[in-house]
Amino acid sequence: MWSLYVCEYKKTGKSKKIINNPNDLDTKYNLEYARRMMAVQQQQQQQKQNKQNQDKNQDQKQQQQQQNKDDKNKDKKDQKQQQPKDQKISKQDADRILNALKDEEKKVQKDLKKKAAVPVDVNIEKNW
Q1: How many CB atoms lie within 10 A of CB 9?
Q2: 3-state DSSP assignment of residue 90
Q3: Residue 38: per-residue pLDDT
Q4: Selection from 31, 29, 25 nearest residue 11 by Cα
Q5: What pLDDT sits at residue 85?
Q6: How far apart are the C-alpha atoms of 18 and 36, rounded to whole Å?
């Protein structure tokens, strides 16, 4: 906006008026005021653009961090899913483990039968 005033000022020849009449303080003041306001406006625009760039960079950084976090979680999930696959045992080992469990079960059943088969001494008094 202020740049338009400065351009118009130069087009209309008022800037030549300052050169021809250096004592015209109003014209000098108006031109200098327009130039300063134009500089302030440009500075504000630059600050606004810098802030937008910082916000954009921060958003990208947050997205990158979130992406990295998601990737790590996915890697952990994949690793957990792969672990059971890696823990395969051979058929011989499985048979050996099953046989050991069967033997243990047989022992337990045998002990239970022994305890059940032991006669209990009960004194029966007959009332006759």
Answers
A1: 18
A2: coil
A3: 87
A4: 31
A5: 55
A6: 17
What is the distance, to the nearest Å, from the Cα of residue 57 to the centroid of all Cα atoms in its chain?
Answer: 15
Over residues 109-121, the pLDDT tens digits come to 998 888 777 666 6
With tokens 């300063």, the residue in question is: 36
Above pLDDT 90, what percent of the chain? Answer: 30
Amino acid at 60: Q
Three-state SS for 52?
helix
Overall size of the chain counted in residues: 128
Q: Using the CB atoms, write b or e for 91-108: b if 16+ within 10 Å.
A: eeeeeeeeeeeeeeeeee
pTM higher than 0.70: no
Distance CA 43, CA 15 (A): 24
Q: How far apart are CA 41 and CA 52, in angstroms?
A: 16
Cα–chain center distance at 60: 11
Give the tens place of pLDDT for each residue, 62-82: 999 988 888 888 888 777 776
Given a contact cutoff of 8 angstroms between Cβ atoms, the answer to whether 18 and 31 are in contact is: yes
Joined together, the tokens standing for residue 50 give: 């810098």
Residue 15 burial (C-beta neighbours within 10 Å; 0-12, 13-18, 19+): middle
